[in-house]
Amino acid sequence: MSRPRILVINPNSNVIVTKGLEVALQPLGFADGPEIVCTTLDEGPYGVESQADADSVVMPLRRLVESDNESAAFVIACYSDPGLHVCREGTDRPVFGIAECGVLTAMTRAETFGVIAIAQRSIRRHVRYLRQMGLMDRLAGERPLNMSVAETASGEGTLAKMIEVGRALKEQDGAGAVIMGCAGMARLRRPLEDALGIPVIDPTQAAVTMALGAVQFSRHV
């Protein structure tokens, strides 16, 4: 019997981001457990950095999910959760958005959380989503790196900037946990947590962990 597959979709076309996701998700694999496969949405923008970018990948994501008859679950690896509900409408298998899962995980670790965004213009989009979820009272603050997705994924100065912003969220805004608000930050979760001394949530790891639970549950019930 073949292992079930969890498909992690990077909605931007930057393969460096996808490779970073593969590295970050390696610790979640286990013998005889679901296979975790990361893929890149080739027709996506190089980085999902605006509402227009997020909207542009909705239907390509839907088509990818609908045409995939092999995967047991899907993870949309973008902190805007683009196309989440449209994709859920197109399949009877579970679809996880990393923002939704990251926030829910952060709330199990601390009373309040902060978010490190890639850019100032991302914050309005994220806050609007939190407001829709009814969770604004748990948000300590959100601060930007003012970097591109590509820079966060491969830039040498990314960690230092993330530590600076993370400390401001902790010390000035009162965040008890920090969510990394971009899939391109995945490789830096552990060193950032070591530097800040509070829980740091990689939302893609959070989403895949939930997907693992859902797939394993369906196999054994």
Give the topology.
Blueprint: E1 5-10, H1 15-25, E2 35-40, H2 51-56, H3 58-67, E3 73-76, H4 84-89, E4 95-97, H5 98-109, E5 113-117, H6 120-133, E6 139-144, H7 149-154, H8 158-171, E7 177-180, H9 189-196, E8 200-201, H10 203-220
Parallel strand pairs: 1-2, 1-3, 3-4, 5-6, 5-7, 7-8
Structure notes:
The chain is α/β, with parallel strands linked by helices. It folds into two domains: 111 residues, Rossmann fold; 104 residues, 3-Layer(aba) Sandwich (Rossmann fold). Helix content is 48%, strand content 16%. The chain has a four-stranded parallel β-sheet. A four-stranded parallel β-sheet has the order 6-5-7-8, with helices on both faces. Helix 5 crosses helix 10 and helix 8 crosses helix 9. The longest helix is centred in the last third of the chain and has 18 residues. It is globular.
The helix content is 40-55%
Structural class: alpha/beta
The outline comes out as: globular
- Report the sheet-strand fraction: 15-25%
Number of helices: 10
Distance between the termini: 17 Å
Poorly predicted runs are none
CATH architecture of the largest domain: 3-Layer(aba) Sandwich
Highest CATH level, the class of the largest domain = Alpha Beta
Strands in their spatial order, largest beta sheet = 2-1-3-4
**Rg computed from alpha carbons, rounded to a whole number of angstroms:** 16 Å
Total domains, how many?
2
Tally the beta strands: 8
CATH third-tier fold name of the largest domain: Rossmann fold
